[in-house]
Amino acid sequence: MKKQLLLSLALAPAMCMAQAFSDDFESYTAGSYIAENSNGLWTTWSNAPGGAEDAYASDDFAHSGSISAEFESAAADGGPTDFVHDFGNLTSGHYLLTLWILVVDGSGGYFNLLHTGGNQAVWALGAYFDGNGEGHIQAGGVQYPFNHTLSGWNEVKVDIDMDADQCRFFMNGASVASWQWSYSEFNTTEGSNQLAWMDVFAYGGEDWLAHYYIDDVSFQEVVIDGAADLYRNGEMPAWPNPVRDMLHVDMRGATSAGTHVELVDLTGKVLAVPTRQEGQVLHMDMGSLMDGVYFVRATDGDMQRVGRVVKR
Fold this sequence. Notes:
By secondary structure, the chain is mainly β. The chain folds into 2 domains: 6-12 and 226-311, Immunoglobulin-like; 16-223, Sandwich (Jelly Rolls). It has no helices and 25 strands. Strands 3, 5, 6, 8, 13, 14, 15 and 17 form an 8-stranded antiparallel β-sheet that branches. 43% of the residues are buried.
């Protein structure tokens, strides 16, 4: 008999965010150094706030309020601005990094995440925003292309699940790519299942000088809420988990024939995957989806439960 792994479901709201940090840059004065005035929230690569590596607060553009962080370079190889948030070498947990970026038309932009910072730096990914509206993520030695709006604000989300060793990148709500988080930016062998730094280096890519702004940066832990039972024993069996192709959901625990089950991604978008029901088992074909984290949402009247499933 195939062993069934229980997919625990929780009462809505199913997915909440435990705030780790956020910065909308409204507490800084235009023209001032940000890291120097951030009470340790930001630093620089050389841990030298208030110097050439620090980023300036700007009132040129803002996604919210009136202030954002500006990055500009006159040199093709970038710098000197090298702006860092230190996560403290996280080795477990599931997190969502969100930021908004505006790249000036004809200029480039860039940021990266690192498995290890400082003198032993190992890059986890690089996000490159070209001056023609194209761009790419590089991870595991692979480039994943995307498009972005020039001289307009773009929402970037990076879902980092160290418990599942998976990462997914979203641009303006669309999933761009997913990969094994412990890969390094340049290969699949030198990385680690760790998050050390976010680094915003004033770099525009091979063909553009850097000029861009970031705003409304947040880093949040993804948490599944627990609450009162809706289904028998508070569980709804689903297997296998992790899943490669077909996910099977046992509907015998549903409270009524009207229980509605659907698959959603991390943005809350309902995914139209091929689904069929045989007796009291619902079969959901996830074979066409990219690797990453998804949620099975079961709704019965005004009651809702959600369980996490990993696609590999």
